[in-house]
Amino acid sequence: METYQENLNVFLDLSVVLTDFSSYELQGTGQLEAYYSTIIDVIGESNMVEVLDAFTLAKTNANGNETELEKQIRIQLLSNDKLGPITRNIIKMWFIGNWYQLPNIWRETYGAYEKDETFVVSAIAYTEGLLWPTIGSHPPGAKAPGYATWIDAPQISKV
Amino acid sequence: MQLHQVETEHLHPIETVDDLKFYLYTAIQLEHATIPPYLTAMYSIHPGTNKDVYDLIRVVVVEEMLHLTLAANLMNAIGGIPDLTGEGFVPSYPTYLPNGETDFKVGLGKFSEETIDTFLNIERPPLPTDSLKGGSKHSFGLTNTKRSRKLLIPAFKSADGDELHFYSIGEFYRAIGDGITKLTQELGEENVFTGDPSKQITPEYYYSGGGEIIPIYNEEDALAAIRLISEQGEGHDGGIFDYEGELSHYYRFQQIKLGQYYHEGDEPNAPSGGPLAIDWDSVYPIQSNPRITDYPEGSELKTAAMDFNIFYKNFLEQLTIALNGQPDQLISAVGGMFRIKEMSYQLMRNPISDDNENTGAPTFEIDAIS
């Protein structure tokens, strides 16, 4: 249980760096655990741990320097043949609420997991996508601002 | 905007239009005061779970908003000023309602059995007239107890100096209705209903919100509004349904307590409808009656909780403007309610700190904002 919480915290830290949304905003979507467990469910815990370990290494190498951290994230994660596509999937999941099937070359090299198909994580994941606050809009059909409020300036929360 | 400055700490029998205004100020405050506890419990439910419960609470809270608006229409009808912005308008939670010998707490808490018990207390039906304790000489649901605490419905002082309390919210409204009838008879309808009719909130500004809004121009309208408020709360004539055939608030909540729906024709306390699915664990572990000071200094949670209170204060100001001659403002105020929901969810999903298992929640500390 403790390891679970620790890993979840590392996943949150990683997500803050990948999305540029704050930890409060990310937790405010209520999707942290849902995305974390989706990854484990689709590609297994060992792949998840590998991503988290690479992030920890990137942080250690950066030693608190933000520019260096960005560089390290590119080296350890985004440019890594195995971890890059997973990392990009994490970003996409936060913004769109979808898991996208990993590229064919990844599936051929590292394994075609049965659950690795494109799907919407949950009905709520869609409405909580970071896409909406990023473009200054409400998710269509959800978080409705109320009848006739279209005459007013939008009131969009940061998340 | 001076009604909240009325000196008296006590209610007394309604003798003048000003007395009536004080009762109505209390009514508006009381209707509002139920909303933060209901919203807190409702939003603490994980979205997508406990749908039955969420919908039941939602119906009640929307009807409370209708009651608030009707009470404001009553206030405007008699030339008063509905004011949701005065100091003390939003109570400090937990607050208290009178409950016979002791008071019961009305607080901000997650959806739980204890919370539903509180809701049942808030919405309880009046005592049968033959079981009134202590104050049998008083005909309208007053019980005789002494307390020092500030209550949501102020104590009532009788002619011989006894301090009494309304046992239920319905009885409090009955006193308002009786007062309106008395004043209309004594002063004439045109001397009671002196308000500017353009300040009434009419159906074009208020739609699908828990029933029909009644614009109030005379005694008949006023009594119809009071009847709607009372019966949505406590049912018609001791029954579980109101005159429109809708289940009253008390029995709506009782369905959660008993885990079963009422069915048409059921007797009180014996629902015979289908089962109600409840998952008590699919709830955010929010802190009860939170305060800004409970949140760590410098944390995003604390900033967000303060932002919420500022937003809510502005929201009450906007409602007050809407209720004082600019009814079109009500439409964009309703838009603000969706923000309140989103901000609440964000607070409730964030742990207070690493070593605190509770999450945050709106504190509704409105007076603390300068």
From TrEMBL, chain A:
It comes from the Bacteria. This is Membrane bound FAD containing D-sorbitol dehydrogenase. It comes from Flavivirga aquatica.
From TrEMBL, chain B:
Residues 24-257 form the Iminophenyl-pyruvate dimer synthase domain. InterPro entries: Ferritin-like, VioB/RebD_dom. This is Iminophenyl-pyruvate dimer synthase domain-containing protein. It comes from the Bacteria. Pfam families: Ferritin-like (PF12902). Residues 351-370 are annotated as: Disordered. It comes from Flavivirga aquatica.
